[in-house]
Amino acid sequence: MAVYARRTKSGRIASNRHRKGSLLLIGTCRITLHIPHSQSLKQKRGTVKSVLARLHNEFNVSAAEIDTHDAWQVATLGIAYVSTSAAHADEVIAKAVRFVERQAVDAVLTDYETEIVMAL
């Protein structure tokens, strides 16, 4: 466990050295989708919006289009999930990736990359 010190609102210096359960773990994922039938940015936006809404509703993750905004047939999505357990964060992110791979009707998952980041 990484040890950190920070100044609290009251001005005291706090450390996580003796605190249990104080880890903040963030599961992140970058997904690249190919949308072969998209003929315009409007069609792409509709497909991406649907995928993002379904991810949020199904897994309670934060998700957004993070790159390739001007490409008609390619979308790059970012997904994040906050947990106190690395295993749980990794599990939720992995399920979200499988969901996109299986359920995205108008899009094909071409690549993804995941990472668990420890913060605070």
Which structural traits does this protein have?
two-stranded antiparallel sheet, 2 helices, disordered N terminus, 120 residues, 38% strand, Alpha-Beta Plaits, alpha+beta, 6 strands, four-stranded antiparallel beta sheet
How many beta-strand elements? 6
Strand order of the largest sheet: 4-5-3-6
CATH class descriptor: Alpha Beta
Helix residue percentage: 25-40%
CATH-assigned homologous superfamily: TT1725-like
What's the mean pLDDT score?
85
Number of domains: 1
The appropriate CATH architecture is 2-Layer Sandwich
Structure explained in plain terms:
It is a single chain. By secondary structure, the protein is an alpha+beta fold. The chain has a single domain, classed as 2-Layer Sandwich (Alpha-Beta Plaits). It has 2 helices and 6 strands. α1 crosses α2. The N terminus is likely disordered.
